[in-house]
Amino acid sequence: MCTTTNSPETIEALKKYSAQIEDLAHKLGLDYYPVDFELVPNNFMMEIAVYGLPVRMHHWSFGIRYIHQLIRQGMGHSRIFEVMFPGDPCRAYLVNGNTLPENTLVTAHVLGHADFSKNNYLFAKFMEMAGGHILEQAAARAHRIETAIQEYGQERVEAVLDAALALEPHIDINRELHRPLYPTNKEKRDAEPQFDAFQKRFRSLPGEKMFVEQSNPGKRQMIPPQPEYDLLWFIANYAPDLEGWERDIFLAVREESFYFYPVFACQIMNEGWASYWHARLLREADFLPHDLYLSAIKAHSDVVRPYAAERQLALAVNPYHLGFSMWEDIVEKKGLDNARRIMKEEDDFSFVRNYLTKDLIQKLELFVYEARNDGDIRISDNDVHAVHEAILAPKFNFGAPRIAANNMHVDGSLQLIHDHQTDGRGVDLGRAERVLEYIGRVWRRPVTLHTVGERGEARVVTSKRV
């Protein structure tokens, strides 16, 4: 019988095998920042999974997530083996209730994650913008929020967190983490190109548009100058009466959303890459005892299996299974060097569209299904494009409707618009009303959202006037 990894003997054995697996990983070409491993109890791991970070701002919504995770785990639907945080160094937490073979496998799995997070362009982009010490930064932000609670009271701080966390997915990943404010009219005029005598004469030739001064110093500046999808940044910087500590909370939530985005956008690639490498490292780790190896491989099979149980159909894609299968197919057909290039350059959107082939879809028995009103499930399509888009649709825009700040009126009221044609769906109007109520509390002016309902009908949602 396999024992848990919490006795001195099993901990020493894990340290020994981990060091040998790291040596093997380097020999096989894995390249990663140092990894700090820590064994923790299951309840601590649950909190990390719910909060997203070991130390994070407190909020009632995390308590609800904790209960949900606890129920899922109690029903056998969710078991957490490890959590790894990219950075320099990476931080990896392993459950001490795992068996020694399980934690040996998890060690190899984490090294695959570490290799991915150092070399993939999305992860590297965040590291360049925010640095590699997310845990320390998150702890500092949590401390500032606790200080704000002591100074301004739980109710006021929680109202700001309600709004900020409700908008957690609403960032613009195409913009920089640290971006400047919109230029003023004066700054725009100062930045306008200066024409020399020849250019002015050329622009005044017949058939050419007359050169006229476009700027109107007395004209009111439009805010935002174009639809602004980074709602956390916009509210932090342009809410009429937002106080400094409230602004800090919005920017703290925004920075953590930037950190989480690569994990979200590369889940299939990342989990598949880590699974490919833990399987390969275990196969080539001839120093492992035979019985430990067999138990670890059994754990691998449980992680990457496509089915919920036995041959039961899975109605949701297992990212471990899908990613692992795709990487094995790519390595077999294109070689490891090409696989590493793909790992560096792609995210899940391009990865699935470019490398989930028709043959692989048939082999993995992937399909699009419809849930009928009578409760029956019907397979509706297994076309390549349909399968790709069914997998990727929930990942678009962080899984949230694409909402932009469109106009801040003279009286300070704010108009939001829903780009429903791009994200291809309506919104839950009840939830939208609650979110607008949260935003209205911090904007302190009326806020309206122009959107469509779940059936595509035009709707306008308005916050309560404060």
Q: If you had to describe this structure to a student in words, what would you say it looks like?
A:
It comes from Noviherbaspirillum album. It is a single chain. The chain has 466 residues and is an alpha/beta fold. The chain has helices at 8-27, 42-51, 60-74, 100-119, 121-130, 134-152, 154-166, 185-191, 197-203, 231-238, 244-265, 267-284, 290-304, 319-334, 336-345, 348-355, 358-363, 384-392, 420-423, 429-443; strands at residues 35-40, 82-85, 90-95, 368-371, 377-381, 403-408, 414-418, 447-452, 458-462. The strands form three sheets. A four-stranded mixed sheet has the order 6-7-8-9, covered by helices on one side. The radius of gyration is 26 Å and the shape is globular. The model is unreliable at 62-77, 210-215, 308-315 and 375-379 (pLDDT under 50).
Radius of gyration: 26 Å
How would a crystallographer describe the biggest sheet? 4 strands, mixed
Kindly report the spatial arrangement of strands forming the biggest sheet.
Answer: 6-7-8-9
Q: Uncertain regions: pLDDT < 50 for 5+ in a row?
A: 62-77, 210-215, 308-315, 375-379
Strand content: 5-15%
Instruction: Assign an overall shape.
Output: globular
Count every beta strand, where a strand is a DSSP E run of 2 or more residues. 9
Overall pLDDT, averaged? Answer: 84
In whole angstroms, the N-to-C terminal distance is: 63 Å
Structural category: alpha/beta
